[in-house]
Fold:
Amino acid sequence: MIRLILLSAVLIWPLHSIARGTGDLGIVIERATGSVQIIETSTNSSLGRIEGLGDLSHASAVYSRDEQFAYIFGRDGGLTKIDIINKKIVKRILQSGNSIGGAISQDGKLVAVSNYKPGGVKVFDAETLNLVADIPARYGNDGLLSKVIGLVDAPGQKFIFSLWDADEIWVADLSNINNKNSTPKITKFKDIGRNPYDALITPDGRYYIAGLFGEDGMAKLDLWNLDAGVIRILDGYGKGEQKLPVYKMPHLEGWAIAGNFAFVPAVGRHEVLVINTLDWTEAGRIKVHGQPIFVMARPDGRNVWVNFAVPNNDTLQIIDTQSLNIIKTLTPGKGVLHMEFEPRGGQVWASIRDEDRLAIFNTDTFEELITFEARKPSGIFFTSRAHRIGL
Amino acid sequence: MNSVRIKDGVIIALLTAPIILQTANAEVNAERQNELLYFIKHDCGSCHGMTLKGGLGPALLPATLSGQPKDYLVTTIMEGRKNTAMPPWKTMLSQDDAIWITEQLQSGLIQQTELAENKHAKTKHAKNDQAQIKQPNNKDVKQ
Structure:
């Protein structure tokens, strides 16, 4: 009898706890109020809000592979695991004084956070948020700690990140981490170029590329051939020209790629740089409206959308990747901070911070379709990221 | 002409005069003060953290700033700091703006203002929550 009751409980339980799938869900960071809004892209609506996530200025998120949980990395060192179906915080820890971003491992069991203070990376069990490994970013002879940026996951249970102060790239292999061993195998690459500010990994998980703030150029690491070391690409792209002030650090999130071309923000120049990924040479430059921040390809690669640093952050520009021309300039409002494409690219969501709203655009007609309220919105993250390397 | 005049937030007088820091209490009207508070939080905050506890750039709290010369901080804001990520803000801020910002940061006044503002924001949002989401319908489509 008891067995029968248990059996029926098991049969009924899933129907009640999960009323819908999660493939069309996403979250929007509300940076000033420590909250996230849960949204869905099938009919473009908000499903609710979760509060109490601390300081979310410069926050980002990754998803569990079942897309039920998101891990939010806050500026205040907070790591919060939320359940986006039941709209609640599952667990929240303060893991450092000041953090910048995070990543989830290939097997979905480890969550890594990159920290400014104390500089380094901490790795947590994705289920419990218990500390699994601590990787202080010590460099030089004095044992100083560097701020860590550009943390991504890579195939083979690896996390890769860059050291802002130390000009290094580290590859941490966690494939041997278990109950008895909490020391990852670290491979360090030194003198990669001055002040790496952010990095990305190509969608195939092969190339890790760090942008440099202190020099004109980028540092490329081929993860299939680590022995080849770090190679400089786009070296001296601003040669001999005075840099413009950089009022906000650009981001290298994802990989704006179309055919053989990749698109990245220049630093201190109002240009988007085009890289030929066959030989990693510069294939062109596109003059744009301001200092580019996010340079993001529509999933089909036909267009690239660009937003800008203050005082030009009221504008979005769209580049045609065949002609390399700007085909549209939109001015949706002040403080356009982030964009996220639907997985198949028909619509793009944009955060318009100063107007406390989200705008959704048709990516073919560039029409603004819908707007709805969000409190000082910044990052937008759809669950489709759960299944992409490096996101 | 050594006096500083502000028109649309741009210094015009200093172009013809040597830069003389005006470190007397800055005169910034109430509307501009609000703009500057927003600016500090969101634009300075990009690098120094929205709560000014630091990020890529150092913390901007009284503990770190109060011991430093005011002129030095004003110059840092206006001219930036070489070989660091701190850019010159003089195209967006007037000298008086920079002095006012420095005073706010050194004294910690901004944190107090911020607390008051947050309380206000929470109350305001709580009221709006009921009617928060506009469903997609014809009215919302911009033609």
Notes: DSSP finds five helices and two strands in chain B. The first helix of chain B runs from residue 30 to 48. Confidence is low (pLDDT under 50) at residues 1-23, 120-143 of chain B.
